[in-house]
Write a structure and sequence with these properties.
By secondary structure, this protein is an alpha+beta fold. The chain has three helices and 15 strands. The chain has a single domain (about 15-255), classed as Umud Fragment, subunit A (Ribbon), CATH 2.10.109.10.
């Protein structure tokens, strides 16, 4: 006959240890997912309108381009270039570390591949001396919701046939006429879809330096895949009474072209 006093009894310290173990495993799993699979980002500006709006939350696939030191929290893994490298396609919307300040993340469209010659003339993107097809589109403009009335939407078709929407205020703005840039080996040329409201690889300071410049392959964080949440840009987190009315349901769980 078993003695009742032999029944196991959970001690408070044992429960505490189990809780710590559970939390620790949850943190490890979260870090693994963030480092190797997907990382969430919030869109803070309108530089990628109409593709991405301020208040969009996106998932970025970390495995698309392989892994560099910037794939990991605080850049703690000392990788000089990339491992298991994947080549971006022209037209990918990518997150990268700003070459001139690697503590900042940028999100732009990669329009120039290594060796390409890139130029913008009267608002038209030229790749290797050939103008990219651009057609006016009310559908592109409608995707942006509340936005400056003067903006015009276009569908831009890249040389391989990939299409995406862009915005232009005019064809004579500050970045609508540029010199020709030759993309170095191992680098990419990035542009925002909101062409007249984007500091990107076209931009130059008064002293001739570039705030963004060419994007090294090692600075690529991943490819933007999906908008999983979208809220009005003027929503404050503490305004809980506005939450149900500030969600952009039509943008949620939509792929990024």
């Amino acid at each position: 006959m078993l003695n009742d006093r032999s029944s196991p009894t959970a001690r408070p310290q044992d429960s505490f240890i189990e809780t710590v173990k559970t939390v620790a495993w949850a943190v490890v799993i979260a870090v693994m997912i963030r480092s190797f699979l997907f990382e969430p980002f919030t869109i803070p500006s309108n530089s990628m309108v109409p593709t991405l709006l301020t208040g969009d939350f996106v998932f970025v696939s970390k495995y698309s381009y392989g892994y560099s030191r910037y794939s990991f929290p605080f850049g703690i893994v000392p990788i000089d270039d990339r491992i298991w490298k994947g080549e971006p396609r022209r037209g990918d919307v990518a997150v990268f570390r700003l070459p001139t300040n690697t503590s900042e993340n940028y999100i732009k469209r990669l329009v120039g591949l290594p060796g390409d010659r890139i130029q913008v003339t009267k608002g038209i993107l030229h790749i290797n001396g050939k103008p990219v097809t651009r057609e006016r589109s009310d559908a592109c403009r409608a995707r942006a919701g509340r936005i400056e009335a003067a903006m015009t939407g276009y569908v831009e078709t890249l040389p391989d046939g990939r299409k995406h929407c862009i915005f232009e205020r005019s064809d004579e703005d500050w970045l609508d006429n540029t010199p020709e840039f030759t993309v170095p080996s191992g680098h990419y040329f990035a542009m925002g879809d909101n062409r007249d409201n984007s500091v990107d690889s076209r931009a130059r300071n008064r002293d001739g330096s570039q705030p963004v410049g060419f994007v090294p392959a090692a600075n690529l964080v991943g490819r933007a895949e999906i908008v999983w949440l979208s809220v009005d840009e003027d929503l404050r987190w503490y305004e809980f009474w506005r939450w149900p009315f500030s969600l952009r349901f039509g943008r949620m769980f939509t792929g990024i072209e």
